[in-house]
Specification:
homotetramer; alpha+beta; Hypothetical protein af1432; 4-stranded mixed beta sheet; 3-stranded antiparallel beta sheet; 9 strands; 49% helix; 12% strand; dGTPase-like (chains A, B, C, D); dGTPase activity (chains A, B, C, D); HD_domain (chains A, B, C, D); HD domain-containing protein (chains A, B, C, D); HD_assoc_2 (chains A, B, C, D)
């Protein structure tokens, strides 16, 4: 049977082509289709109503950029075989397949102690077995054990197609146009030197712009205080439900109450791949009527966008501020317990780094053959001081 | 307490301002927030993955265009009081609040025999009571009993802000850029003559373009054959579930099994306003394991985007084609019943009209004061022949 | 010496690649570079200030679309050799190289009786001689003598890349966003059947949209009454200058006063290829001080955008209206002659056809292998009545 | 006679409204209309073919942003009278009216020793006299003698509407999409504190983005090496012409050969206001045939885009490199003089500063009422090191 190919409309890139039968089988797999039902940006849509795009749309977008990047490198004479190209495309398609409901927002909360990359690997292995090893190279690239490291760097690195797509896409759907990056220009300037992914000298200003766009998106969107409040409420809803043993649909129940290290891993994976945002949203809708008033309150508030108040600042939250917020609730509800208050008033830290220099770098290849990190070029905008992780402190509380 | 106003980011229009306390209360109401959880385009995202935008985003967009249109008319000297302006804005915000899960796709299926406009009216009356009559004028405009008919025509007419927004928005999110309309130009050319909404003479080509964009969006997007297949599967899932008495969450259950004419209307409304896409999606997820194999099959196929095949044509579907599709299933599943087959092979008609001339018109106001319908101008593109409803016949079937 | 290729930034398409040495030589030729100094839309910028884009930008854009279209056809299995591809690209690059200053606006006025396509052919032959026949195939395609007619149809036909680019580009630079067409979608749907260029069945609505966009651009932009007035003033400036023997730079002078049929064709061509908008603009600037008051007035009015008034209507201009405009001028300037008045008050007709069915057609290839014209499909928007040329009458006059 | 207002289409902002009779008279003035014939970006179009937009389009765009900014400040309760608003709009419309042909590229070369702001002031005074003092306040704002300094800062400052428009516009027309700035967001966040223009705290990331976009546009576009080469050739064409007394049209001739300090200033101004790019382009076209071979060569090369080669570097150009380039020319043209060589091989420096902290600042108004410079906020991206002017050295030479 011949494979005719498929064209998908994308609001950002126009047409995305699926022109390989393995890619088509991966995209058609129920595990992949599940990504349709997971928001890319969790509850950011409570602030940016357009931001309801899905993990699947992002995955397809990153796949599209991967196709472009591979084509560009091939045009520049870098050897990439057809099998390697397919494998790199599959690797990027599946790089986020291990995300659970509300992805980052519930990472570590829903399935405790397991990172989504580990889940992605398990799911890829599962699909690989179904497809009789067709994903072997994709897995090697994903795991960074393949002998051409630049392929892994395209999937996951300081300048990977994952970031290029999510910055662009999140910017597009939120309407925060300042997050738009010149992805086509950056892709045109990618190159490979000694097996490593680099960018050409003239890309310096585009890279600076990319890093500054990322910085802006973090503080203005991903760590927007109202988004933070909503996502922290979600985390506490799950924690509270688990703590009091709140009932829910069997799949969600299984994942909530079985730790990954002690239980049947295969069963956990099976249950996990049936979960998406729908299950969690449905549980929250039901828990509005739960007898536990903390759980019910948090669920009703979140659903009706009647969110906890939040305050962000550079300095630690003063103990007296916390005490004052608790006192206000106690005045309105004299029978509230200290344990309940720990859900209704809480503090935390939002963190971001503009540019990490320690673990991975953005290497610039100069015309004279020398290689320097973006923070080491002449008159660099990106400096050592931006490599530090910046934390902002917040207090979040039920307003009474 | 003073009202500070609120700005919402929209990917299409940039900033949308909420600058009126009544509007703010409406937008904050749980009945309005529910629209966040209803897809604007039901299952169109199975073909256009970006099209996951919500009824709420559309409603806010239409509200924004209403603000622009009212401002433009005021600049032209048309009298619109501040109260009328607020009322028109509230009317457009709530014009779709009566949509249930998957809106048009399940209209008439979920709540049998009740149109979403009726539901919108009931909900508006409910909120109006809560707000002590603050929505009286909005209701009059919505019901077209207000003495300035152009205000109703802005909410609902051949050239209302509802259509302007949904064409633009659906075009934007699907990536079908050809649906984009020059809404700003049309709004600049709106006027009122004898109390009726009209457009100025020079708008003729923009209006033609608007109608052609609408025609294109219907055939290319809303009635796209794969979208049709998915939505018809959804309709039959609900019908089958009701027929066999499939279990589901109490709110959905109540609405499924109580006809609006025979039951307690207040209770039905209460249950209805707690439903959104989540409830239906959750039911479909659960019904994948339902013992009724027809229901389970349809649910699994829909969730995994393993859709029934569909064929569209101008001529009626020949009986032998239907027989042949049924025979194929019978061969694979010899014990299938005729009643089951009626779910697995079915036919229908997709219908659209490019321009309705009978009930409502797009009136052009000429410089000499005369008024003509768009289909009556010199060298009209929009002609009588486009006023006929065009139907395309389809057959949809499980592929075995 | 190896050819490295060149990338050009375009505000519409992003990056345009020049990847062929023959294409590069053509683009570098002074005859081609001259197109930088000719407005694509003559004096449309008096109404749409952004519309100052050049013939060269349009030519490069059409070249880019040609590259895309050829690639798409090749992917569909249509045989196009590398030499044919280069030739088709060169043919589109040079299709407009014969345009003189202010292109269409002065067509037939500056070089009397010679169409720009004839000039393009002469210039192509000239460059071909310089390049030792490297443009032989390009010329055959341009002249429609090549044995694959679809290549000529891509250069010049109802659905050629020339129109696709100019509609898009003119729409982009004027800000009349309604002229934007779904060029990428149309290109994806191009095909070749029996050697003829066609579009696939599903393109019907996109083609309708394309024709309606073109109709809109004609009446709203190209034949905008103020643009018409400015361009008719320009035509009459040239006519008046020639009539009274006004002085100007030798190259312009030679072309103005030598008829192409009676003079040394090689010398005329040589002079012509040195002319561009600059020469005409400079002459107009100088003629502001010309003793002939008609010429001086028209030049000053045009430069300062103090344009003649214009009135457009369906019916012929009544003789008494003309008489009245002349009388008004005569009252202000009693010594004005009838001959002078013929420049200060004049009438004419603006003409456009939405869809020509007689000479060339847009053929739709149906899945069953049948071919029908766009005006013959089911429920066609494009009908016979749109094939008629529509004329609007205008009177243009100096306002005193 | 009542003033009806006028709407201008702009490809970037959509509709620009002229709703004030004084503004309308300014825009209609021949001195203003002259800006139609001056490229905003001189010869940048040799690299970015779309960048042929005019000073007038930029001026109208800045005017539009001024209208938006004033409206926003008024909404925030800052007192701006209708007269002040009109004056601020006129001031921005005319801020660049003193630019001569090719604006920045020939600044100081054509009219020696006079800055374009001085010329703008003289022209504004001239129009003011014509309009009987209607521009008094506009002049005071322009000259920064008005008692509300924030109005001047909107016209000219680190965050003025001039920069916002040119970054946006130049980015749009070049196709370097990375220069796009979130102008609407910045405008929404403008405020006035103690009479000074400031931005609110939450604008920090948008301002960073604005400064980085500006940095990128400088190095990637304005100081692009090929653009530099073309503009330096233009400067040397004018210098050479003046040196050898090359003939040209009387207006250009007068300006070339009369120093502003020694001659009749009124006559110089009169001549100057009749010059635009056309005069200089025409002279260059004529000088192609000039007997001075240096002048003729430079003119022919510039017109045919056969530009001098250029090399940019951080270090000074080594004397031996200069000598080597001169030797190459001498070998090809043994009779070339050292004086001629000074035109055919030359060096220089391109300079830019990312953020000037000495003279003017971008002040951030914090919620607690404190004011800090953008370089002083927490975790600032914009640091002291970016306040230094960065120079790159170049050598530019005729390639033989």
């Amino acid at each position: 049977m011949s494979f005719k190919g498929k064209i998908i409309n994308d609001p950002i890139y126009g047409f995305i082509s699926i022109d390989d039968p393995v890619v088509f089988r991966v995209v058609s797999h129920p595990y992949y289709q599940r990504l349709r039902r997971i928001y890319q940006m969790a509850f950011a849509h409570l602030v940016y109503p357009g931001a309801v795009h899905t993990r699947m749309a992002h995955s397809l977008g990153a796949y599209h950029l991967m196709s472009q990047a591979l084509g560009e490198l091939q045009r520049k004479g870098i050897e990439i075989t057809p099998d390697e190209a397919t494998a790199a495309k599959v690797a990027i398609l599946l790089h986020d397949v291990g995300h659970g409901p509300f992805s980052h927002a519930l990472e570590g909360t829903l399935v405790q102690g397991v990172h989504h990359e580990t889940m992605s690997r398990l799911i890829m292995e599962h699909i690989n077995a179904e497809l009789n090893g067709a994903l072997d190279t994709a897995l090697a690239i994903f795991n960074n054990t393949y002998h051409k490291p630049f392929l892994h760097q395209l999937v996951s690195g300081q300048l990977d197609v994952d970031r290029m797509d999510y910055l662009n896409r999140d910017s597009f759907f939120t309407g925060v146009s300042e997050g738009v990056i010149g992805y086509d220009r950056i892709i045109k300037m990618l190159t490979v030197h000694n097996g490593q992914l680099m960018v050409e000298e003239k890309a310096v200003y585009s890279i600076e712009k990319f890093l500054v766009a990322r910085r802006l998106m973090y503080w203005q969107v991903y760590l927007h205080k109202t988004v933070l409040a909503a996502e922290q409420m979600l985390v506490r809803i799950i924690r509270r439900a688990r703590e009091i043993g709140a009932g829910c649909h069997p799949n969600l129940h299984y994942v909530l109450y079985n730790r990954p290290d002690t239980e049947d891993a295969a069963e956990l994976l099976r249950r996990f791949t049936m979960l998406d945002d729908v299950d969690v949203m449905m549980a929250i809708k039901e828990w509005q009527q739960h007898p536990d008033r903390v759980l019910a309150t948090m669920c009703t508030c979140l659903l009706n966008r009647n969110l906890f108040k939040i305050k962000l600042q550079s300095e630690p939250i003063a103990p007296e501020v916390i005490a004052q917020k608790k006192a206000a609730i106690r005045q309105a509800h004299p029978d509230v317990t200290e344990e309940e208050l720990s859900y209704l008033v809480f503090t935390g830290e939002a963190r971001n780094t503009t540019y990490k220099t320690d673990d991975e770098r953005i290497n610039i290849l100069f015309k004279d053959g020398s290689v320097r990190d973006i923070s080491q070029v002449d008159n660099a905008l990106i400096q050592q001081s931006l490599a530090a992780t910046v934390g902002k402190q917040y207090i979040c509380y039920l307003s009474v």
